[in-house]
Amino acid sequence: MNKVVKKEFFSEKVVRLVVEAPLIARARKAGNFVILRVGEKGERIPLTIASADAEKGTIDLVAQVVGVSTSKLAELEPGDYITDLVGPLGKPTHIEKVGTILAAGGGVGVAPLLPIVEAFKKAGNRVITVLAARSKDLIILEDQMRQWSDELIVMTDDGSHGRQGLVTAGMEEILQREKVDECIVIGPAIMMKFAALLTEKYKVPTQASLNSIMVDGTGMCGACRVSVGGKTRFTCVDGPEFDAHHIDFDEMLMRLGGYREEEREALERYHLQHKLVEK
Amino acid sequence: MGLNSLYLKQERDAEWRAELRKKTKNKDRMLINRVSMPELEPEIRVNYQDREVNSGLTREMAMQEAIRCMDCANPTCIEGCPVSINIPKFIKNIERGEIQQAASVLKETSALPAVCGRVCPQEKQCEAQCFYVQKLNKPAVAIGHLERFAADYERENGEMSVPETAESNGIKVATVGSGPAALSFAGDMIKKGYDVTVFEALHEIGGVLKYGIPEFRLPNNIVDKELENLQKMGVHFETNFIVGRTASFDDLKEQGFQAFFIGSGAGLPRFMNIPGENYNGILSSNEYLTRVNLMGAQYDETDTPVLHGKRVAVVGGGNTAMDSVRTALRLGAEKAMIVYRRSEEEMPARIEEIKHAKEEGVEFHNLCNPLEYYGDEKGRVSGMKLIRMELGEPDASGRRRPVPMEGSEFEMDVDLVIVAVGVSPNPLVPSSLKELNVTKWGTIVVDENNMQSSIPEMFAGGDIVRGGATVILAMGDGRLAAEKMDHFLQEKYTVN
Ligand SMILES: Cc1cc2nc3c(=O)[nH]c(=O)nc-3n(C[C@H](O)[C@H](O)[C@H](O)COP(=O)(O)OP(=O)(O)OC[C@H]3O[C@@H](n4cnc5c(N)ncnc54)[C@H](O)[C@@H]3O)c2cc1C
Ligand SMILES: Cc1cc2nc3c(=O)[nH]c(=O)nc-3n(C[C@H](O)[C@H](O)[C@H](O)COP(=O)(O)OP(=O)(O)OC[C@H]3O[C@@H](n4cnc5c(N)ncnc54)[C@H](O)[C@@H]3O)c2cc1C
Ligand code: SF4
Ligand code: SF4
Ligand code: FES
């Protein structure tokens, strides 16, 4: 049981929770994630550790509400407990001084990107960050990102904030302008797919952090498998970051939809229940 | 061995046992037919994931079966049991109606008798060595059924006896994992007075007993009862704790843990690496069984989803494959099929599970192997290509090697495929301990006389040492490790 100590909404659908987890706060590195479960009937879902305070013994989670489990999580209030929380999981990001880093985050992918940007900056790199979302109110963590970036570009699909256009437009501008040594992208699978195609054209080594469907997070089930360079890998133990130029994104997109029907039904049941309770 | 046979003789010489032997002539004992286990009807049981198939012997049945055992002077059955349960002693207690005492005999050597009575491959272990099989060519005494009966009787009637524990010696030891290996280790160490903590990565204690073996074979509440017993004895349980990640071995040593038992299991599922294997609807047996057994995905009120198939193929011939295919039936499959590359004779599954699967209507496609999967436009598996196999020369394992028959390819429509072709050792622990010796298969190397690894204060046992094995072998390892770790620590403390 882990206590929620703070909660704030970045937007209607994006929530930040500060959670007590002293051991994880101490052990985690940039790129790690946790698996948690809300309620005894809850599902195990993975969330990246957005940041941590080892002294206070807390970790920050930023979640986008997309279905039943993330809805239940967003309903927790300070003082409530998360039924189960385990971590840190996954391989940490390989952080090194390489020169110039281009970091691109889309939607809620910005949350897991934050600790990585911070770590690259602290390792002495020049960091250029591109944040993207559909519209202004979906851009999160802009100030925190600015703190660790030498340059920050904001892109929105509708032009309501920053510049209008897709994340790839912002990235390409930088790639054309100067030599980038390494790129990291985190966001919806479709965004990562196009970002990877772009950086391949410019021959910039690129890591993408995958959000496969998971159950245990310890390599036990294989639900999270992806094809990388023609080989099957498990995102939870071999990843979550892989060489973006070798990921089979089409297969990954297909696998993300593996339980769509069941998830939709679950969400309907959940909303129905809520309506009943409200009445 | 000398000491053991002296103890067995002394026990056998007890007056009550001598009397029992005199009471019925062996000739008459041999005339009794082996008891058959009462079962839930196949048509009924396929509708319930959580109703046990075997309903257990009645007291009368058990006492009658117990008469069959001849209380041999040389009880070979015990040699077939990896934890050396004093089999005639517990069975003779059933014969004289002292069921509670029979249960105590089981607990002398086994931390989970209600579990082993249900899941041990008895026909390959204790029962294979029974005098009836060895010398009389008759069905063995139903040791497993009797074991289950005694353990269940104790649980259901009156107080479960909590075994006595020695006075605390204050020495902290820990297990990595909470499967049968770790639990039997923990049970023995707490009896010896150690301060024992069990660390488990998942949110439930029990390892495969919880996430793998379905409730229709091993109800969770039976595992929980046995866990309660350990808790009463003082074992600490820490769930959601991955040793090597949540905290390192060094962190734990700093907290005062003096030695570790690694029972992290063989949890890594193998796939066949054939085309199309990553389509949706093709999953490992671990994933399928975990969703159902650990997460309760078959119930509406839980949040975890599970895929329901109408035409389900399960690839493999072990217990895991049988559990998966029978689970698929219970979740509504119209056709549930086993696809196995050898013949039934070579199947590693327990004979009882194969029999139950057949009664429930599972189709067996033996001597077949998948070559490729096809998917529909949404990426869900829709069919598979298979090839027929024949058995050739015996391979290294002594089993005849399956070879594909050229030109025998054929196709089958399927909408769910469960891959149950084996597991590899869980690499979490070995990868966090560079000095640990492991084999090229990833199993931990131990001295088999004492289960000690290349790091002196780390002992290991169960599937992480053996690869996929059995519950009772894992428990045997846990017991041996407890005995040897005790010596190791006592020596260390008397020297210092
Ligand atoms: C390593 C990793 C890190 C992640 N970090 C974050 C994060 O920091 N913030 C955040 O908002 N999201 C993150 N995600 C995604 C998050 O786990 C899913 O959004 C969440 O599980 C959806 O659950 P749900 O019940 O609310 O939605 P559902 O209705 O169940 O599903 C909506 C969609 O989410 C995905 N999904 C469903 N179940 C799972 C599952 N068990 N595991 C993974 N994905 C699933 C599927 O694509 C599905 O279509 C991460 C995923 C991974 C693998
Ligand atoms: C579906 C299925 C059916 C089976 N049926 C039978 C049967 O009928 N009869 C039989 O005898 N055998 C059967 N087996 C085999 C038997 O279950 C195993 O041999 C036995 O459980 C092995 O026990 P173990 O203690 O070594 O590990 P496991 O039971 O595998 O438990 C290991 C535990 O360690 C945890 N763990 C791993 N790494 C860490 C870490 N770093 N920190 C903390 N925790 C960790 C895991 O989460 C897991 O819970 C079956 C197996 C399966 C999968
Ligand atoms: S523990 Fe298993 S092998 Fe030993 S006596 Fe019981 S059923 Fe037989
Ligand atoms: S070998 Fe068979 S008959 Fe003899 S003591 Fe053992 S169970 Fe009884
Ligand atoms: S989540 Fe189960 S293996 Fe990765």
Uncertain regions of chain B: pLDDT < 50 for 5+ in a row? none
Helix residue percentage of chain A: 25-40%
Can you list the strand order of the major beta sheet of chain B? 3-2-1-4-16
Strand residue content of chain A: 25-35%
Major sheet description of chain A: 7 strands, antiparallel
Task: Determine and state the CATH class of the largest domain in chain B.
Answer: Alpha Beta
First-residue to last-residue Cα separation of chain A: 31 Å
Oligomer: heterodimer
At CATH level 3, the topology of the largest domain in chain A is Rossmann fold
Describe this structure in words.
- The complex is a heterodimer of chains A (279) and B (496).
- Chain A has helices at residues 22-27, 68-75, 110-122, 142-148, 167-177, 189-201, 235-238, 249-256, 260-278, and strands at residues 2-11, 14-20, 33-37, 45-53, 58-64, 81-82, 84-89, 100-106, 126-133, 151-156, 163-164, 182-186, 206-209, 225-228, 231-234, 241-243.
- By secondary structure, chain A is an alpha/beta fold.
- Chain A folds into two domains: 2-89, Elongation Factor Tu (Ef-tu), domain 3 (Beta Barrel); 100-256, Rossmann fold (3-Layer(aba) Sandwich), CATH 3.40.50.80.
- The mean pLDDT of chain A is 91.
- Chain B is of the alpha/beta class.
- In chain B, helix 16 packs across helix 17.
- Chain B contains 21 helices and 16 strands.
- The mean pLDDT of chain B is 92.
- Chain B folds into three domains: 5-156, Fumarate Reductase Iron-sulfur Protein, Chain B, domain 2, CATH 1.10.1060; 172-267 and 424-492, FAD/NAD(P)-binding domain (3-Layer(bba) Sandwich); 271-421, FAD/NAD(P)-binding domain, CATH 3.50.50.60.
- Chain B has helices at residues 2-12, 15-23, 26-31, 42-45, 59-68, 76-79, 87-95, 99-109, 113-119, 131-134, 143-156, 180-191, 208-211, 220-233, 249-254, 285-294, 319-330, 351-359, 428-432, 463-466, 471-495; strands at 172-176, 195-199, 236-238, 257-262, 268-269, 282-284, 311-315, 335-340, 363-366, 368-375, 381-394, 400-404, 410-413, 416-419, 423-424, 458-460.
